[in-house]
Amino acid sequence: MTGETVHNLRGDYSRMRPDYTVEQEWDGYSDAEHDLWRRLFARQVALAPKYACDEFVEILPELHFGDGIPRFDEVNAKLKPATNWQLVAVPGLLPDITFFDHLANRRFPVTVWLRDPKEFDYIVEPDIFHDFYGHVPLLFQPVFADYLQAYGRGGLKAHALGAIEMLARLYWYTVEFGLIETPKGLRSYGAGTLSSGGELPYCVDSPNPNRIGFDLLRIMRTRYKIDTFQETYFVIRDFSELFEATAPDFTPYYELLQGRPPHEASTVLPTDRVL
Ligand code: PHE
Ligand code: FE
């Protein structure tokens, strides 16, 4: 997730390197922070078997996220041989270009700070719990991992073409809030839902939101909600569908879409595959 400006953000941007990375300074986390992490973890992990995709559920025990705030270096030692991704520590949201450049080089930026206890249920800016618990497990899935790198490369290209907004919608409706069809039913693979106590059951069970089959151009034309649960989720059949549908050159897609007004988050079209 990106933030075009880093002003007024919560993290400490005063000691970062030019690529916005910092040291995690793991020894600086308090006992209270480790305890809060363990409580956040306990709630989410209890929901995972019913609502998270198998790829997420199966890798979690190997990551020991339940012990307390994880160390970047320990996870990196496992991630490198698995998919050749690495985590980098950052103060918080990054400028778009910086974010895309990290992804394009298989570096996933993870925020170093943890929310306050009063933000147990909801947090505005992504913290280490969202970034680590929500995003890192799927970095072990080879096809998804390749998709994320391709997304980073595509972001650098979209920037040059003035198409960041359309590409950001794709990130939102896949990496953050994506659903996947499985033999057991719909499951989440999106970090925004996987890390949320309220929205994880909601995205699978609630009769309220629309669930629509993945459709690249439709997604890039669809607005999203940042301060409520989503009104629409898009559903992939498997990670290969996601990778293959996004492999073509987007330049003609951007040209086609640039002249058209966006759809609202709640819109259902006659052409949608509604699940
Ligand atoms: N194929 C896209 C392009 O050429 C890049 C991309 C890949 C974007 C994967 C998002 C996800 O612009
Ligand atoms: Fe995120």
Walkthrough of the structure:
This protein has 275 residues and is α/β, with parallel strands linked by helices. The chain has a single domain (26-258), classed as Phenylalanine Hydroxylase (Orthogonal Bundle), CATH 1.10.800. Helix content is 45%, strand content 10%. The chain contains 12 helices and 6 strands. The chain has helices at 31-51, 54-63, 72-83, 96-104, 128-135, 142-160, 164-176, 191-194, 199-205, 216-220, 239-245, 251-258; strands at residues 86-90, 107-111, 179-182, 185-188, 210-213, 232-236. A 4-stranded mixed sheet has the order 4-3-6-5. It has a two-stranded parallel ribbon with strand order 1-2. Strand 5 (210-213), helix 10 and strand 6 form a beta-alpha-beta unit. The longest helix has 21 residues, at 31-51. It starts with 30 loop residues before the first helix and ends in a 17-residue tail after the last helix. Residues 147, 150-151, 154, 157, 170, 246-250 line the site of phenylalanine (PHE). Fe cation binds at residues 130, 135, 176.
